[in-house]
Structures are given as structure tokens and as C-alpha cells.
Design goal:
By secondary structure, the protein is an all-alpha fold. It is built from three helices and no strands.
Length: 164
């Protein structure tokens, strides 16, 4: 039965460590991550809204071109041919302009995502380097805590200097 019921001391220390970990995560990790995710979500939703507006404008332009074609059919054959050529050219120009605008929006969104990714990687590298330096400092302090070890290191460095 002792294997199933935890000891009161173990329960206390486990709860304390968990609470400390939760506080550290809440203070230093969750806020930056949530803000970055929210910013990215906002940028993506703005890009999607812009794409939808561009698509609606393209549909409106297409509807206007169809009305021009209907009116042109009622006129003479020569005017009909000219109107069809003009409408086709306008549709192609509108499509090209809409495609270029959509490409620009997508390109800027990709660049923003890549920039955010690079910044996050850089920040992570800086943190890893800082942790590595702290660990190395603690190891060196432990190695040089004893006078005998310090003397041995000084003798070794002096021998290296003499050899060079």
C-alpha cells in the first residue's frame, strides 16, 4: 500500500518544484511565445482579408466586363468586335494586376515569417550560448576551488609558456 500513497514530504517538494517551474514559465516563456503567435496570427489574418478583398474586386471587374460585352452585342458587328477586344484586354490587365498584388502580399508575408523565424533562432542561440558560458564558469570554479589544483594549473601554464 506504501507504493500507491505518496509520502507527505514528497508531495510537498513535488508541489513546490511544480509551482516554481510554473511561475518561471509564466514569467519568462509563455508571454513571448503567446505574443509572437498572436502577432503571426494577426498578420496571416490581415493577409487573408486582403486576398479576399482583391478577389472580390476581381469578381466585380469581371462582372463589369460582362455588362460591357452585353451592351456591345446590341451594336453593329464592327463595334462588337472592338468591344470584345477591349473587354478581353481589360480582363487580362485586371487579372495580371490582381495576380501581381496577391504575389506581393504573399511575398511580404513569407518574408515576415522568415524574419520572425530568424529572430527566434537567433534568440535561442544567444540563450544557449549564455547557458554554456554559465556551465563552463561553474565547472572552472569547481576545478580551481582547491589551492593544489590552482598551483598545478599555474605550473602547467608556465611550462607551456616556456616551451613556446
Amino acid at each position: 500500500m506504501d507504493l500507491v500513497t505518496p509520502d507527505l514530504g514528497l508531495l510537498f517538494w513535488t508541489s513546490l518544484v511544480f509551482a516554481l517551474l510554473l511561475i518561471i514559465l509564466a514569467k519568462f516563456v509563455w508571454k513571448p511565445i503567446l505574443s509572437a503567435v498572436n502577432e503571426r496570427e494577426q498578420k496571416i489574418s490581415d493577409s487573408l482579408e486582403l486576398a479576399e478583398k482583391t478577389q472580390a474586386e476581381m469578381k466585380a471587374l469581371h462582372a463589369q466586363n460582362e455588362n460591357l460585352l452585353k451592351e456591345a452585342r446590341a451594336e453593329r458587328d464592327l463595334i462588337v468586335k472592338d468591344a470584345k477586344e477591349t473587354a478581353t484586354k481589360m480582363v487580362e490587365d485586371s487579372k495580371n494586376a490582381a495576380k501581381e498584388e496577391a504575389e506581393k502580399v504573399m511575398k511580404s508575408a513569407r518574408e515576415a515569417i522568415n524574419n520572425e523565424k530568424a529572430a527566434a533562432i537567433s534568440e535561442l542561440k544567444n540563450q544557449v550560448a549564455s547557458f554554456s558560458i554559465e556551465i563552463a564558469e561553474k565547472i572552472v570554479r569547481g576545478e580551481l576551488s582547491n589551492d593544489d589544483k590552482q598551483k598545478a594549473l599555474a605550473d602547467q601554464l608556465a611550462a607551456d609558456v616556456n616551451l613556446n
